[in-house]
Amino acid sequence: MALLDLLGRRWAQRIVWELREGAKTFRALRAACDDVSPSVLNARLADLRAAGLVELGDEGYHLTADGKSLLKLMLPLHAWAERWAGRWR
């Protein structure tokens, strides 16, 4: 339930998703997240860092091994959502 609570917070899943291709600086991550407010992005990054899913390195924020493992679990859900959304377009 703790993971579902974390991922249910605004922007948490989007941040994980945007880090799927590699590290991003705070500014690049903010732009990728449709200019989410800096305070919300800081709060979510703090939550994700505390959970061990994201780290801050020399090149910016990136997924940890646990974050990458979570992303792999999200990919089938993404594929399902794409098929489902296609029926309503």
Largest sheet: 2 strands, antiparallel
The CATH first-level class comes to Mainly Alpha
The proportion of residues in beta strands is 5-15%
The radius of gyration computed from the alpha-carbon positions, rounded to a whole number of angstroms, is: 13 Å
Uncertain ranges: none
Tell me the domain tally.
1
Count of helical regions: 5
Q: How are the strands of the largest sheet arranged?
A: 1-2
For the record, give the distance between the C-alpha atoms at the N and C termini, rounded to a whole number. 33 Å
Structural class: mainly alpha
User: What is the helix content?
Assistant: 55-70%
What name does the CATH topology carry? Arc Repressor Mutant, subunit A
Count the E strands. 2
CATH architecture annotation name: Orthogonal Bundle
Based on CA inertia axes, which overall geometry fits? globular
CATH superfamily: Winged helix-like DNA-binding domain superfamily/Winged helix DNA-binding domain
Topology order in helix (H) and strand (E) letters: HHHHEEH
- Mean pLDDT across the residues is 96
Give a structural overview:
- The chain has 89 residues and is mainly alpha-helical.
- The protein has one domain (2-86): Arc Repressor Mutant, subunit A, CATH 1.10.10.
- Helices cover 62% and strands 9% of the residues.
- The protein has a two-stranded antiparallel ribbon with strand order 1-2.
- The longest helix is centred in the C-terminal third of the chain and has 22 residues, at 65-86.
- The termini are far apart.
